Amino acid sequence: MAFLLGTLAVWRISHLLAQEDGPFDVVFRLRRKVGQGFFGTLLDCFLCLSLWIALPVAFLSADTWIDRVVAWLALSGGASILFLLTNRTAEKESRG
Fold first, then answer.
1. I want to staple 62 with a disulfide (CB 3.0 to 4.6 A). Which of 11, 25, 29, 67 is the partner?
2. In Å, what is the CA distance from 1 to each residue of 8, 34, 58, 69?
């Protein structure tokens, strides 16, 4: 259950930062402020961003270093799968 909730949290935060403008355009303004450098490029890539978002979640949810590394990759991978599935569904709906 904790893994599922962690995966959903990583997906949600990554999706908010990479794909949405956020409430009151806060995320949009953040993306514009960081520009085209490292952080700007990071905010444009969901798959890259999910690795960074999954890191603290994995650190808090596992006890040993090897478990943290495995959880980190698994959480990011789970969020990436959700992202690819939801994008594929959105593309099919937009095509009609």
1. 67
2. 11, 35, 14, 19
Structure tokens that stand for 6 in this block: 């962690």
**For tokens 């995966």, what's the residue?**
7
What does the block give as tokens for 95? 């095509």
SS3 assignment, position 65:
helix
Q: What letter represents residue 33's amino acid?
A: K
Residue 92 — very low, low, confident or very high, per pLDDT cuts 50/70/90?
low
Determine the Cα–Cα distance for residues 96 and 89; give it in Å rounded to an integer: 11
pLDDT digits (tens, 9 = 90+) for 41-82: 777 788 989 999 999 999 999 999 999 999 999 999 999 999
Tokens representing 75 are 């959480």
Q: Report how far residue 59's alpha carbon sits from residue 55's, in angstroms, rounded to the nearest whole number.
A: 6
